[in-house]
Design a protein that fits this description.
The chain has 48 residues and is mostly beta strands. β1 and β2 form a beta hairpin.
């Protein structure tokens, strides 16, 4: 996927992530120490 990693870890601040599985299921997680959430949308959410 083209990710590059540093030799030494560093803090990144605020993180939300969504894992999309091959079977179509999703798993979301959010940094509990910050405001925010992990939210998945499908194509119907973008239609006006």
């Amino acid at each position: 996927m083209g990710f590059a990693f540093n030799e030494v870890p560093h803090s990144i601040g605020n993180v939300q992530a969504i894992q999309i599985n091959p079977d179509g299921s999703n798993y979301g997680a959010a940094d509990s120490s910050r405001e925010g959430c992990a939210m998945g949308l499908d194509e119907t959410d973008y239609k006006s």
